[in-house]
């Protein structure tokens, strides 16, 4: 008998953004709030840890090392191509 009671409910489903704009707006609002919370957490928590608890962040130093390595590699590639030796190491 449950199949008969769910049949009329399925007949009322109307897909599309125009038909469900309220639900879609709520979804956008919730995603914006969650994104804002995650973004502020990723910027504020490391600052609190470094200033209040004197915890050194390892993420910043790793990113700096990667950036230096990439700059060095791109410099080698540019120098090698300028000299006609290919794309570098």
Summarize this entry quickly.
With 89 residues, the protein is mostly helical. It has three helices and no strands. The chain has helices at 2-11, 21-52, 58-83.
Structure description:
With 89 residues, the chain is mostly helical. The longest helix has 32 residues, at 21-52. The protein has one domain. It is built from 3 helices and no strands. The model has no long low-confidence stretch (mean pLDDT 76). It has helices at residues 2-11, 21-52, 58-83.
Shape: elongated
Query: Spans of 5+ residues with little confidence (pLDDT < 50)?
Result: none
- Elements, N to C (H/E): HHH
Largest sheet: none
Share of helix, binned: over 70%
Figure out the total of helices.
3
Helix/strand class: mainly alpha
Number of strands: 0
Please report the distance between the alpha carbons of the first and last residues.
72 Å
- Strand % is under 5%
Computed over alpha carbons, the radius of gyration is 27 Å
Main attributes of the structure:
mainly alpha
Describe the SSE topology.
Layout: H1 2-11, H2 21-52, H3 58-83
């Amino acid at each position: 008998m449950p199949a008969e009671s769910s049949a009329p409910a399925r007949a009322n489903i109307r897909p599309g953004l125009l038909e469900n704009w309220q639900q879609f707006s709520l979804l956008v609002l919730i995603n914006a709030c969650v994104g804002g919370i995650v973004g502020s957490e990723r910027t504020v928590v490391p600052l609190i840890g470094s200033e209040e608890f004197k915890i050194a962040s390892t993420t910043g130093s790793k990113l700096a090392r990667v950036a230096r390595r990439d700059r060095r590699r791109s410099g080698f590639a540019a120098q090698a191509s300028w000299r006609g030796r290919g794309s570098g190491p």
